[in-house]
C-alpha cells in the first residue's frame, strides 16, 4: 500500500470515528431545545450531521470549480482530476444533506420537502448537477469535447453555491437561517456550538481522506491511460521498422 493511500485510509477511518462520536454527542449529550420554539424539539439532533454535511458539500463544489477553471485555462490533466474528485464528493455529501434534511423536515414541518423553500430547491438542483456530472463522465467518451461540456455544466452548478448559502437571507421561508458558530447573535447554546464545530471538523477529516483517495485513484487512471497510449503507438510503429529491415 502506498504512503498516500495509507494516509487517505487513515484520515477516513479517523474521520468516520469522529463523525460517529458527533452523532452520539448529538443524541445523548446535546441539551434539549425549547418545545415552544420547535414543533419537534428532539428531532433537531440530526442537524449535528446535516449541517456538517452541508458545509462539506460546499467544499466539494469549490474543488469542482477549481478543477473546471484549471481545465479551461490550461487543458491541464491535473485540473480534470480535481474536477472529477469535486463532482464525486459533491454528490456524496450532497446526498448526505438531502437525505438527512427531509428526516428533520418530516418531524418539524410535517412534510419532508417544501417546494416553496429556495434553499431546499437550489441545493437539490446543485446535487442533481453533481449526479449528472458523475453519470455523464461514466457514460460518455473521455474526449476534450466531453470535458469542455461537463466543465461548463460544473461552472454553472457552482453558481448555485452562493445562491444556496444566502437563500435564507434573501428569501426566508421555513428553512433555518445561516448558522455561524462564532456569531453572538446566533442564539445557539454553547454546548450545541461545540458539537456542531466538532462535527464540522470531523466531516472535514472524512472529506480530506476521500479527497486524497479520489485524487490518487484518478491520477493512477490517467497514468494508466498514458501508458496504454504509449504501448499502442509502439505497436503501430514496430511493424514499420520490421518491414524496413526485411526490405534491406
* CATH architectural category: Up-down Bundle
Straight-line N-to-C gap: 50 Å
CATH class category name: Mainly Alpha
What's the Cα radius of gyration?
23 Å
| Percent range for β-strand residues | under 5%
Q: Roughly what percent helix?
A: over 70%
**What is the domain total for the residues?**
1
Number of helices: 7
What oligomerization state is this entry in?
A: single chain
**Structural class estimated from helices and strands:** mainly alpha
Mean pLDDT: 85
* Contiguous runs where pLDDT drops below 50 for at least 5 residues: 180-186, 244-248
Inertia-based shape: elongated
Description of the structure:
- The chain is mainly alpha-helical.
- The protein contains 7 helices and no strands.
- Mean pLDDT is 85; it is low at 180-186 and 244-248.
- The chain has one domain (3-216): Up-down Bundle (Four Helix Bundle (Hemerythrin (Met), subunit A)).
- The radius of gyration is 23 Å and the shape is elongated.
- Helices cover 77% and strands 0% of the residues.
- The longest helix has 58 residues, at 190-247.
